[in-house]
Every structure is written in C-alpha cells, then in structure tokens.
Amino acid sequence: MATTSGLFILTAWMMEKHSDSPYYVLFYLLAFIVGGYAKAIEGIQESIKDRQLNVELLMMFAAIGSAAIGYWGEGAVLILIFAYSGALEMYTLQKSDKEIKALISLQPEEAWLLLENKELRVEASSLEPGNRIKVRPGERVPADGIIVKGNSFINESALTGEPLAREVHTSSEVLAGTLNQSGLLEISVTKHMKDSVFQRMIDLVNNAQNDAPPVQRKIEEFETKYVLFVLLAAALTFLVPSSIGIWSYSESLYRACVLLVVASPCALVASTMPALLASLSNAAKHGILFKSGVFLEKLSLVNVIAFDKTGTLTKGQPSVKHVEFLHSSWNKEELASIIYEIEKNSIHPLAKAINEHLKVIPEEYTPIELTMFEDVPGKGVKANIQSIIWKIGSREWANITEKQEFELLEKLDDSANTGHTVVYVTADDELVAYFLLGDTVREETVNAIKDLQTKQILTIMLTGDSKRGAEMIGRIAKVDEIGYSCMPEDKVNTVKKWREKDAVVAMIGDGVNDAPALAIADVGVAMGMGSDAAIETADVVLVKNDLSKLLYGMNLSERLSKVIKQNIIFSISVILLLLCANYLQFLTLPFGVIGHEGSTILVILNGLRLLK
Question: Where would you find the membrane-spanning parts of this chain (predicted)?
C-alpha cells in the first residue's frame, strides 16, 4: 500500500510539473487514501478504544493541514514515509512471528507408537507419558522422552542454537522438535506435548512479545499527554504570531503544520518495541526464553547471581561412590529393599542415584507397604513401614551430629570421603546405612562463573548439601560465596538479604525447592531440563542446562539497553533540532517530513540490528 501510494505521488508530481491539468490533485488524494488508510483506521480505533489521542491522529492532522494550505505533495510524502515506517515496524513483528512459525513447523504432527508387536501411526498430541515410540533417521522427535533403545546423533539447533549434533544413547534425554540424524531410536515418552520444552518455547516467546517493558510503557503514557501538548503548541503557533504581526496568517498556518509534523513522537514511540522484538527472536534462536520483555531489559542490571548446585552448576546426575550398611536388625538385602521402596517415591536426583545403585543388589524382593510417606524439600524423605519411622536425607534430617559424621567419614580413605554428599538412613533414629554420592561440575560452569566475575557480578552457590560437599563443588566452580545446608527458606532469605542491600539479584535453579527463591528474585532463571515448578515460576528459561547461554542473554540485554538509549536520545535530539529550525523559519515542510520520518526509519533499522 505504501509503494502504491508512492506511485500515485510520482504520477501527480509528473502531471503537476509537465502539464496544466488540475487532475494531479486527484492522484495526491489517492496517495493520501491508499498510503494513510491503514494508519488512519488504526489511529481512530485506538483513540475510540482508549479515549485518548495518539501519534497516528497527529500525523493525519499534519497531512490534512498541509493539503489545506496547498502543500499537497508535502502532505502526501508525509503519509508515504509514515506508511513505510509502519511497514518496517510490521516487518519487525513478522520477523519475530516467523521465528515462532519456524518452531511450530518443527513439531511433528504424527508419531510411530509401539504397542506390543505393532507400530501405529498416531497424532503426536495424543501421546501419553510412558508410551513407547519409534523415531527413524531423518525424522524429528515428536515428544520429550528418554531413549530406551538405540544410538544416534541428535541435532538440537532449533531449540538451542548449537549447530553441532549431540551423541545420544540408551538413557539419554531427548526433546520434541529435535532431529534424529542417524540411528533408529525407541523412546519412552516423559511429557505430554503441551508440557514439552518445545511447546514451552512457543508459549513463552508468544507471551513475551505481548508484554511491553517499563521503558515502552512510560513512552506510551507520555505519548498521550505529548500529543495534546503538540496540538496546543500548533494552535498557539498559528494564533499568536499572526495576531501580534510577527508572521502573516498564511506563514503562521504553515509553521503550525510543520510543527505538527516535526514534533510528532513517532521515532520516540518506535525506540523500544522493534528492538525488543528483535532481541526476543534472537534469544529464542539461541535457546533463551523470556516470559516478558521486562526481564530481558532487567537482566543487564543484575549484579548478584545465586546458583543452586545440583543440576545447575553440576550435571545433576550424581552417582553413589561408596555405601556402608551398618550392623543392625536388617541384613544388606533387606535394607536395600526398604531403601529402594522408599526412594522410588522421591523425584530428587540423589534418590534416583541411590536407586540406580541399589538395582545391582538383587532386585527380586517382596513389595513393601508404606503406610506413610513424606518428602520434605531440602531435608529428605520420611516413611512409615510396619510402625517403624524411616528417614533418608541430610545429617540434620537424620539427627546426626557433626562429631558423628566426622567419626564415620574418618574411617574411609581420602578418595571416598573428600567432598562427597552424604545421605543418611535411619530407622527410629538409629543409623543403619549411609551413602556417599558425587556429582560432576559442568564443563561450561567454570568459564561462565569466571566471565560473570569479570563483569563485577557476585556469584553465590546455595545448596542443601553438607558443608563438605558444598565446599568441594564451590572450589571447583570458583564461586565467590558458598551457602550450604540450605532449606528453601534459607535460599529465599539470602535473595531477600541482597535485595535489601539494593542489589539486583538473579536466582538460577532447576528444582522444586528452588521455586520460592526463583519467585522472590528480581530475575528467576530456570534450567530447561529442570522441574515443572521451577520452569513455571522462573522469568527466564535456558532450554538446555547451559550457563553460557545466560551470559549470551546478559550481553544481549546490554546491547538492547544501549540501542534503546541510542534511539531515545537520537529521536529527542532530532525533534528539538527540527523545532528550532521551524521557529527560526529555516525549515520547509518537505525537509521537516524527511527529517522527522527519516529519523523514525533510522530508529527502527537500528533496533533491527539486534536480530543478529
């Protein structure tokens, strides 16, 4: 429509220059209607809805005023450039929508469901947790799951931005929307399609685009008052100079029309949203999902970051390094059966690791009935079996003193007792077994912590682990501060303490026990492979558990902040310069149109740089 309007303007200009026909005005009118229709309708509808004036109406008044005093060409060019700036804004939004549509297109609509000896083609949306599916080479994975058979290379670039394929094998986790490049895989589904990481990406990007950050909201609030101010200033510019004889009535009307053009805050209004939408698209391509543009803007202000340990700084896949079954009323096989039965009800990574280890001890046992089971985040689990209270968890949970712990671990050689997490098992407060578990610090963790510290960001590790285990991981990761034996409320209190010191705090975690701290932090960041509670509570989700993505997000946030500041300063400076030139009678309407609308286009293009 903008281009068609431009063709009408060119035709009218040629007729005006090379013939005496008065019909050139008709082509200018067509240019007004075709080029200004979309923006005029938008402005009128929003004005009626919000019961307030807006920039679109201001530009309509300016264009009509130009035509009223005989400057048809200038008014038409104003409409043309305003239409093109609107088209650029729409392009930015469509570019962001394109990223979502590209994601949606990667979600397979159908899947091969394995039932006994049959393979059935079913809707991917009908898959339930526990279903077994087959994925052939070259097909996309239809649901989040765990590989139960086969080896392959999985391309996750659509979700994480990483171009290199990841090697997967039995027990590896795979995500919906990723591409199976080589082997034949059988996968056990773990989540409904609506709960998959892939679907969360689509939902989060959609929601974030519709939520303007504080800067944009302030500009929108300012816009309404500013439009009234410009209309008043234009009226005074027409009435005052002509009344006191400084300018003629025609000159006063001309300067009022120029004022309407150059004082319109189009560039200021376009300073934020195109840049924000471009940034959100960029982040989504790299596996960083923001629930709102507010948090993308706020991320660059963070100066304290608190990390959960297991699953965040570490791989979250601990394994039993050593186990001691103490002399008691139960033999090893009986104890293993009881512990296995209790721990299988817990979703904690340590419980899973213990049960993985206990599987090597005879799995044939008589099912044991639990008359009570309680999972206390940050402490452990408690169960009632045949009127005996069993506790499995931390030293405090099992009522083990520091002295007792020291005596127990002192008996072990250094390779077994240095820095591992200790899980105790008691029966009616009698210690009957304990496990030493170790985890591995992620490869990217140390570099990520180092890079954060170069940004003068304080790094804190908060964990429910014992002092011994926490300090070992803390030393490897090289965090600034270590908090150990932390309950969920301890993590919340730590975040509150730093916020009370006027710090901007980010909390990063993946577990149910991290959710309260994620909620209270200025920016809550969840690991995409973490618990549903953490993902629901967090403001930002890292699709893969990769802390280097957090740094990418922070750098992107800093770039966004710089671009928005550049746009705001530039747009205000152009308005002030053009206003001065207008009142000094240096500025003509055509140059006012070019200066004002040109600045709007430059601001939008500057924001589009964030797509890269």
Answer: 23-41, 53-71, 226-247, 253-277, 568-587
